[in-house]
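Its record is quoted verbatim for completeness.
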Amino acid sequence: MTVGLVIVSHSARLAEGVAELAGQMAQGKVVIAPAGGTAEGGLGTSVDKILQALQRAASPDGVLILLDLGSAGIAAEMALELFKQDHDCPVMISSAPLVEGAVVAAVEASIGSQLAAVAEAAAAATSLPKLPATEEQQAGEREGGPD
């Protein structure tokens, strides 16, 4: 078993896309359950969708929940309370950036890392550069920092 991931987004399409991308990086070795949008198909979050995703991703190794926006955390916490009533599965909620955090977490989980290490790797994704450093930035690093 591996740590499972739940992707919570206000948009179903965004949650599904992030889950697809992270799943490709994990080569199918990790359960990644999207929980996006409202029950009616609109923008927002759904405690029921998050609870169902937690149930799909549940593993003895644990589950990491990643969020798109802060208010998704409230719905995730509510779903987690319901989940804990019937499951003895460790769960952590991450404040990592959604896309980068999910990809890094999926790769970390795919190599069999424990929940704390998966969460730590996701959180570290905050500092991943999106663009290569410019020559000026590289020169500043060689000289001991920016001007």
Residues 70-86 form the longest helix (17 residues). The first strand starts at residue 4 and ends at 9. Strands lie at 4-9, 32-36, 63-67, 91-94.
